[in-house]
Every structure is written in structure tokens, then in C-alpha cells.
Amino acid sequence: MLDLCRLIWRMFTDLFRSRATLEAEILVLRQQINVFRRGAPRKLAFNPIDRLIFIGLYRLFPQTCRALAIVKPDTVIRWHRAGFRSYWRWKSRRRCGRPTVPLEIRRLIREMSLANPLWGAPRIHGELLKLGIEIGQTSVAKYMARRRAPPSQGWKTFLRNHADGIVAMDLFVVPTISFRLLYGLLIMGHGRRQILWFGVTAHPTAEWIANQLTQACGWEQIPRYLVRDRDGAYGEIFMRRVRSIGIRDRPTSPRSPWQNAYAERLIGSIRRECVDHLVVVGERHLRHVLLSYMSYYNGTRTHLSLNKDAPISRAVETAGRILCRPILGGLHHQYIRI
User: Fold this and answer.
1) What's the burial of 330, exposed, middle or buried (CB within 10 Å: 0-12/13-18/19+)?
2) Contact yes or no for 199/185 (Cβ under 8 A)
3) In terms of DSSP H, where are the helices of the chain?
């Protein structure tokens, strides 16, 4: 900085000196530079003030490049361009304005756009407002996931959209205390794996099964498809009843229980969690046990396929004292807060 002040002062005093004196001084300075160049290192070090002086003189008088001796003209031009970039970088710095969107909100916007391909920026913006997140709609559009193809649903969504209209049914055998065989009829919905009906009889006929299906689904909530096996109990009366109420009957292939996997898995759960741990006295007793298990299964038991929720969704309880209620005589328990 001191050298710059001296240079300015000498420039001011030179205005009052004669031309001959200035030319003689210039010759002396040039000769001194020639002497210094002979003993100076190949590459000289310049501080920012030196570079600023050279750049300023070059900016005001481009012809001064011809007088440069200790530095090349291209070096001065490179310094000028670097200063130009630094100037515009400083001028384009972030000033007070719209605050940055936190990383958690940006991730949430991207997850929403990927999970809901049919949603646009206004729809996602509305959901964020309902979650108490104040953000502009243009910012939502900025951080949404970009897609090359038009939005489309996945296979999982496609299958789940049809699951609500499908019910499955199957018969299972339970022995009694007197070694008689009772038949249980299971009717379940594929939507949330909910048990719709339990029927118990000692002699399953086609007419009885048709009446059980009518009572389970009613005439107003008729499913679109029915999945069942090819048991001989589903006779002509049953098939006529199914066609009359507008259900499309879809029997599985012979010896293919895996095609009715949901019902078969549920029957396995009923055996492992209920009837294998008690002795059935009679038809009335079995009906009472199965209805108690249906209430437990639909409203209390959590399922891995439902993200640890029950078929009839349970609310999350965070306050209160935990109370334990026995179910099926203590075979299972329900935990609630009061």
C-alpha cells in the first residue's frame, strides 16, 4: 500500500516537471531495469498491489504493454481476466432474499413425487401445507423428481387397485372332543386381508355355502371376483347363486393350493394361533372361538404385509397407562392405553 501511495505522489509531482527531465528519468529507469534483469531470477514474485497497478495502467493505456520488461504482456492480460472473474463472482454473491429449502424438505418433496407419479406441484404443495410446511409452489416444482417418460403406476399399485374387489374362500376341518369332524368356512377379502365371515357346520352342502357367501358379502357390497378351489362341496346350487348375484367365479387349477395362497396362509394362522391350542366341544363352541379370533385378527393383530398394522387400522396411542386385555382365555393379549 505504501508503494502505491508513493507512485500516486510521484505521478502528481511529475505534472509540474519539464518533458526533458521526464525523458531523462525514464532512460535512467530503463537502464536500471536492464541491470536488474541480468541478475534477477527467472520468475519474479508479484504481490496483489503490483498486479493491480499493472492491470490499472493496462486498462487506461493499453499501449503501455510495449514498455513492460520484467513481465510479459500475456501475463498482465491473464491477471486482468482473473480479476474480471473475481469481480463478477463477488457481484453475483448470495444476498438477502429467499431462504434455502432445508435438506429434509427437499428429500420429502422428492419422495412424494416418486411415490405419487400422478401428482403435480400443486398437489404436493397442498399436502405440504397440510403438514405445516410453509414453502412456495415454485420451489416444490424445482425439487420434484424429473421423469423421462409420462407418469405411470407400478405393478404393485395396479394389483392393489384390484385387490379390494376380490374375496377368497376355503374349507378347513377341525376335530371335536368326541372325534367328530366340523367344517369351518373362511371368507376373506384380499384388500387388507380382512376376515369377512366364519361359518361352521358338520355337513357342508352347496346350498349352505351359498347362504354363507350371501350373508358375508350381502347384496350391496358384492365383490367382483371369487377365488376358491375345486372342492366337490361347491355344487351347482352354489355356482348358480354366485352367477345370480354378479360375482365372477374363478376356481383354481387342480392340486394348486398356491393359487389361493392368502386363504391357505390364513387357515395356517388359525391352526397355529387358535384351534391347535384347545379342544373343541361342539359346533357352537367352535363358532364362538372362531368369531373371537376374527375380532382379534381384524382389529388387534398386526401384519407384516400391512406395515405392522391391523386389517382394521389401529390408531397410534402415545399417552396413558398401558393395559393388557386377555383374548381367547389368555392365548393372546391386547395392549391399549387408557
Assistant:
1) exposed
2) yes
3) 2-13, 19-39, 48-60, 73-91, 103-115, 121-130, 137-143, 155-163, 206-217, 236-244, 261-273, 283-299
Tell me: do 261 and 321 sit in the same domain: yes
Domain co-membership, 284 together with 139: no
Distance (Å, rounded) from C-alpha 336 to C-alpha 305? 22
**30 inside domain:** yes
29 located within any domain:
yes
How many Cβ atoms are within 10 Å of 84's Cβ, its own excluded?
Answer: 11
Q: Mean pLDDT of residues grouped by 10 in the chain (338 residues)?
A: 64 68 65 61 67 69 62 72 83 72 90 85 90 88 81 71 89 95 95 92 94 83 89 92 90 92 94 93 95 94 87 87 87 87
Amino acid at 91: K
- The span from the CA of 192 to the CA of 212, in Å, is 21
The phi, psi pair for 185, rounded to 5°, reads: -105, 125
Do the domain assignments include residue 93?
Answer: no
Examine residue 312 and state whether it is found in any structural domain, yes or no. Answer: yes
Q: How far apart are CA 174 and CA 172, in angstroms?
A: 7
